[in-house]
Amino acid sequence: MDSFDAGAGGLLRQPKAVWATAGASVVAFMGIGLVDPILPSIAQGLHATASQVSLLFTSYFLITAVAMLLTGFVSSRIGSRKTLLLGLAFVVVFAGLAGTSGSVGQLVGFRAGWGLGNALFVSTALAVIVGAAAGGSAAAILLYESALGLGMACGPLLGAVLGNISWRYPFFGTATLMAIGFLCITAFLKEQPRPARKTSVLDPLKALGHGGLASAAVSAFFYNYTFFTVLAFTPFVLDMTPYRSGAVFFAWGVLLAVFSVIVAPRTQARFGSLKVLGGSLVLLAADVLVLGYGDHTTAVVCTILSGAFIGVNNTVYTELALGVSDAPRPVASAGYNFVRWFAAAAAPFFAPKIEEWTDIHIPFVVAAVTAVLGALVVLVRRRALTLPHSRLRSSGGTPMAEQLEPAHAIEDGVTVFAN
C-alpha cells in the first residue's frame, strides 16, 4: 500500500474534533478566493481602480504575515481551542463589517482585521489537525490540503453566486459560515494539551535560523508571488462576469484540490519531493508566461491549469515546512508562513502597478521569473531541504523519508542525495 492509500484510509476515520476543525478550515480558505470573481464588481461599486481593489489581498496577507509571530505566543498561553475561537470571532466580525463598507479604504481596513483572525485560526488549525488526526502526520497533511483545496474551489463559486446579486453578499455569507464554524468548534473540540514551554514572539524567527526551514521559506516566498499574481491579478485580465469568473476559478480550485491530495503524494513517492517541487515550479512558470501572452481563451485555460501546479506545490511546501527542521511544528509553521505571506501581500500590489508602468504582459513575466527563482532555491539548497531522520516517522511507523524522498538514503541521522 503506497503512502497516498495509507493516508486516504486515515482521512476517513477522524474524530469529530478533527472534522469540525477541517470544516471550519474549508470556510477560512474560501475567504481567500472569495473576492476573485467580484474584484471588478467591487472596483465598479466603490469607484476604485484595479490597484486599489487589489489592496484587499495586500492588507489581508500583510497582517496575516505579521500575525504569524503572535499565533504561537497566543495559543501557548490560552490554548488551541480558545485561539481557534478567537480567530473565528475576528473573521465573523470583520467579514461582516467588510460587507458594509462605504469606500475601498474601509474595505481594505476590514480585510486587514479579517487577516488577523485568519492567521490565528489557520496556523492553529493545522497544528490541531496534525496533533489530533488519526493515521499520522501524512494523513493529517492530506486532510489539511483537502480542506485548502475544497475551500479554494468553493470560495470563487460562492463569491460568484452571491456576488452576482451584490458584491457585499459574499462577505456576509462568509461571516455566516464562519459563525457556524465557531459553533462547531465550540461543540466538538475539547481543549488540547498546551506545550510544556510557552512560545515567545521571537521563536518563529529563531526557527528560521535552521538552513532547511529558511530555504523552504525563501523558495515559498518566490512561489507565493507567482501564486497570488494568478489569484489576484488574473480576474482583471480575464474581465468576465462574476459567474464566468467564478466558474473559471472553481475549475482552478478543483484541479488544485485533486493535485494536492491525489497527484502530489503519488508523484512524490515515485520521483521524490524536491524533484517534483522543482519541476512543478518550472511548469508553473511556463504556464503563467503563456497566460500573459496568449489570447483570452488561452488565458482561461492557463489560469485553470495553474491550479494543478499550485496544488502540487502547496502539498510539498507544507510537508517541508513541518518536517525539515527540529523546531516544534507550530513554531516552524509560523516562521515559514511569516516569510511566505509577505509575497502574497506584495504580488496583488505590484502586479497592477507593473501593468501601469509597462503593459499587461509584464506582470506575468515577473511571476514566471519568481517561480523559476523558487525552483533555483530548491536546486541550490537541496541538501538542506531533505528531512532529518528524527522527523521522518509517522504514527504508523513508516519512514516518511520513503514517502517523501525515495531517491535519498539515510546516513548519520540525516537524508542525503543518493545520486
What attributes does this structure have?
419 residues; mainly alpha; Growth Hormone, Chain: A; 17 helices; disordered N terminus
What can you see in these coordinates?
- With 419 residues, the protein is mostly helical.
- It has one domain (3-417): Growth Hormone, Chain: A (Up-down Bundle), CATH 1.20.1250.
- The chain has helices at residues 3-11, 16-33, 39-45, 50-53, 55-78, 80-98, 104-132, 136-163, 169-188, 203-207, 211-238, 242-271, 273-293, 296-323, 329-357, 362-380, 400-404, and strands at residues 408-411, 414-417.
- Mean pLDDT is 82; it is low at 1-9 and 389-419.
Explain the layout of strands and helices:
Layout (H helix, E strand, L loop, with lengths): L2 H9 L4 H18 L5 H7 L4 H4 L1 H24 L1 H19 L5 H29 L3 H28 L5 H20 L14 H5 L3 H28 L3 H30 L1 H21 L2 H28 L5 H29 L4 H19 L19 H5 L3 E4 L2 E4 L2
Helix pairs in contact: 1-8, 2-7, 2-8, 2-9, 5-6, 5-7, 5-15, 6-7, 6-9, 7-8, 7-15, 8-9, 8-12, 8-14, 11-14, 11-15, 11-16, 12-13, 12-14, 13-14, 13-16, 14-15
> How many strand elements?
2
Shape, please? globular
At the fold tier of CATH, the topology name is Growth Hormone, Chain: A
Q: What is the rounded Rg?
A: 20 Å
Q: Name the average pLDDT.
A: 82
Coarse structural class: mainly alpha
CATH architecture: Up-down Bundle
CATH hierarchy, class: Mainly Alpha
Strand adjacency order, main sheet: 1-2
Biggest sheet character: 2 strands, antiparallel
What share of residues are in beta strands?
A: under 5%
For this structure, what is the CATH homologous superfamily? MFS general substrate transporter like domains
Total DSSP helices:
17
Order of helices and strands: HHHHHHHHHHHHHHHHHEE
What is the domain total for the residues?
A: 1
Uncertain runs with pLDDT below 50, 5 residues or more? 1-9, 389-419
Which bin fits the share of residues in helices? Answer: over 70%
Distance between the termini: 26 Å
Subcellular location: Cell membrane
Organism: Streptomyces echinatus
Protein name: MFS family permease
Transmembrane segments: 17-35, 55-74, 86-108, 114-134, 141-163, 169-189, 210-233, 245-264, 276-294, 360-380
